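Handoff note, outgoing to incoming analyst
You'll be picking up this chain. Sequence as last confirmed:
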Amino acid sequence: MTNKKIYLFSISSHPDAVSINSLDITFFQPNIDFSKYDALIITSKQASKALTQYDKTAYIKLPALCVSVASAKSYEALGGKVLDIGGGYGDNLVDKIKSYPKEKRWLYLRAKTVASDFVQICKAEGYDIDESIVYESDCSEAIKEVQVTDDAILIFSSPSSVKCYLKNHTFTQEQKIIVIGKTTAKALPGEVEYALSDETSIQSCITIAKEQFLK
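Most recent structure output, in case you need it:
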């Protein structure tokens, strides 16, 4: 068994990796009239955390279309009901939204910067979606200062984690890169080889690291 280290760049952690909190999150509390909507769109756990700033009775009856199992669990943990779950990518939500009537009124609780344009695609076809920015993420000091070994296995959970890492670091030829999702993969430089997780989960990435790179 090799002694290569696994580094996880995410706002979540895993016991089998050196977990580097890649982003600092700032929450906002814009004025929202939840009574105007039929359903929420949630694409991250941070969106659910942002909801805790509001009176639960105002939003809890609204079902949520969630991008992944993880984001769905975050809304269920608040006591909310999940309407449907996408395939882990924002782009996959287009077909989910189109399966409902155009009259359905959606509220997308989003970050200041987003990687997918699924809302614009749906709105261009007449679907009723409002957006509310409830948080933003900035590169953390931890990801700026981390010292990574030249033969490490690096796991990135989001496009932001890739971009923040590359602001202060470069990849070596010996390092192995694993990403959660195609959207994250797009944030990598074109010449970088990478492994794509089978599922949009950190555990899936850890499994790839152990099975492909640590034997």
